[in-house]
Amino acid sequence: xxxxxxxxxxxxxxxxxxxxxxxxxxxxxxxxxxxxxxxxxxxxxxxxxxxxxxxxxxxxxxxxxxxxxxxxxxxxxxxxxxxxxxxxxxxxxxxxxxxxxxxxxxxxxxxxxxxxxxxxxxxxxxxxxxxxx
Length: 133
Hints:
Layout: H1 3-9, E1 11-15, H2 23-27, E2 31-37, H3 46-55, E3 65-70, H4 76-95, H5 108-128
């Protein structure tokens, strides 16, 4: 994955932010909407596309477009930086393939210890019974 190539494929759109902010909200478009077309991306390989489409299936539209929003700051530039960082982190985390777990063998000493404990509890319970003369 090359960050420079991917960032050229991103499209940004400035939208009026909702919520509190007074008269400034009605004038300034500070909210940033990032869209990334995963299906038609040239910077990702086919394998990476399949992995991303599988892992990000809940965040993608039916056309395979990823949409992220950011309206945390009053500045449009800061919102653009925040949403870009969020996008890159999302892609990098999705491309990480976890290692397969190797099942380990139970050590012999652990098995023997368990059997010894079972024997001792068995003997304790046997000693609680009335002696049979």
